[in-house]
Design goal:
This protein is α/β, with parallel strands linked by helices. It has a single domain, classed as 3-Layer(aba) Sandwich (Rossmann fold), CATH 3.40.50.300. Helix content is 58%, strand content 13%. The chain is built from 8 helices and 5 strands. Helix 1 crosses helix 8. It is globular and about 40 Å long. It binds shikimate-3-phosphate (S3P). The site of shikimate-3-phosphate has 9 residues, from loops. This is Shikimate kinase. Catalyzes the specific phosphorylation of the 3-hydroxyl group of shikimic acid using ATP as a cosubstrate. It catalyses: shikimate + ATP = 3-phosphoshikimate + ADP + H(+). It is an enzyme of class 2 (transferase).
């Protein structure tokens, strides 16, 4: 059984997941990292070359494997909840935490980050609002509880999460 983080890109899944794992003395894994190891290239390159559908196939396979084998903390990619099968597997096999951030919060954190293909567009703020609109209900469906990431520090968020576990 794992603790699994879902949320928009830039919501803090990796940062908070890593800290929580350290606090609990559990192994941490980032599914995007496992995907890149499996692909042998960056997600950004793969997205550009093979398209989103092919990326989602690999992502689904990796999530299926990790949710069956990893005993610890898992940070997922922001689109991990898009496929119904993924939402079901995450929810049934782990304790899923939705790190909810507003599009404005996310934009503040990721605006200088060039590694996120979905945000490499002319109007990233409009893109984030659209992503939030589509995905917020899907993150909620997959999750067992929601943590609002707006103001608190990483340490405070980790404390809040340990109290909910
Ligand atoms: C994606 C988010 C990324 C990565 C891929 C697709 C998305 O992960 O999986 O670029 O669809 O939101 P992060 O949420 O870690 O940026």
């Amino acid at each position: 059984m794992s603790i699994i983080f879902v949320g928009l890109p830039g919501s803090g899944k990796t940062t908070i997941g890593r800290q929580l794992a350290r606090r609990l003395g559990l192994p941490f894994v980032d599914s995007d990292h496992v995907i890149e190891e499996r692909l042998g290239c960056s997600i950004r390159e793969y997205f550009a070359r093979e398209g989103e559908d092919n990326f989602r196939d690999v992502e689904q396979q990796v999530l299926d494997d990790l949710t069956q084998t990893h005993e610890g903390v898992i940070a997922t990619g922001g689109g991990a909840v898009l496929r119904p099968a993924n939402r079901q597997h995450l929810h049934e096999r782990g304790h899923v935490i939705y790190l909810r951030s507003t599009p404005e919060d996310v934009y503040r954190r990721v605006r200088h980050d060039t590694a996120r293909p979905l945000l490499q567009v002319d109007d990233p703020m409009a893109r984030l609002r659209a992503l939030y609109g589509t995905r917020d209900p899907l993150y909620r469906e997959a999750a067992h509880f929601v943590i609002e990431t707006g103001r608190p520090s990483v340490a405070t968020l980790v404390n809040m999460i340990t109290m909910q576990l």
